Each structure stands twice: as structure tokens, then as C-alpha cells.
Amino acid sequence: MAAEPVSAVLTDLDLGAGGDGVELITRMRAVGSGVPALMMTGSDRAVARARLADAGLDEIAIVEKPFEFDHIMKKLAEIVPSDISLAPRPPRPTPVAAVLDTVARTLGRRVL
Predict the structure, then answer these.
(1) 104: how many CB neighbours lie within 10 A of its CB?
(2) In the prediction, which pLDDT does 11 show?
């Protein structure tokens, strides 16, 4: 998030050995991030809601797995401000792709 702005964060409640989604959102808020967040879980929704409430994160929406892609996009649209697009951003070129593009532009797009 420090390297590139994001429109929203979709996290799972259980992130394995690396922590959990509640901790992730808590850390985001602790550094002043107001990025909208949505939590998904395959666990008991009441347990997830209680963990969020204990962390003071009552406003975080929960989506239960399994879910349809359209459902998750609808939920994201509900939490992301209307002036921010949820359309995928074009991928940033890798260093190799950037070098090849520079070479191609230099050669007038001619292939050697």
C-alpha cells in the first residue's frame, strides 16, 4: 500500500501463519489508512463478526465463502467511494519489458 495506492483491501479472516485479516486491518488503521476493507471467511460468521468487534472494526463487511464473483464485486462497490474505479489497472511493466519497449521504440518498432 505504501508503494502503490489501492482502492480497497479484500482479506481473508484466516491468513495462515502470517496472521489474520483482523490484524491486517488493525495495522492499516494504526498507520492512518482509511482504505475500505472487506473480509471474507469460511469460518462461522458470528465468530468473524465478534473478532472484528473486539478490534473496534464493526464497520467492516463480511462475505461468507463460497461466494460468486458478482457478489464480491457488488460488496466492493458498496464500500469503495463512487469516484474510484474498480476496473483493473494495467500491469506495470517489469524491468525487462521496459527495456525491450525502449529498444523497440528506439528501433522504430523494427524487429532485428
Answers:
(1) 13
(2) 92
The 8-class DSSP code of residue 5 comes to -
Q: Please, what is the end-to-end C-alpha distance for the chain in angstroms?
A: 40
Other C-beta atoms lying within 10 Å of the C-beta of residue 8 = 16
pLDDT digits (tens, 9 = 90+) for 1-35: 677 778 889 999 998 887 899 999 999 999 998 89
Question: Distance between CA atoms of 19 and 59, rounded to whole angstroms?
Answer: 20
Which residue bears the cell 462497490? Answer: 77
Stated as kind and residue range, the H or E segment containing 51 is: helix 45-54
Give DSSP secondary structure letters for 67-96.
Answer: --HHHHHHHHHHHS-TTS--SPPPPPPPHH
Identify residue 81 by its one-letter amino acid code.
Answer: P
The residue behind cell 485479516 is 21
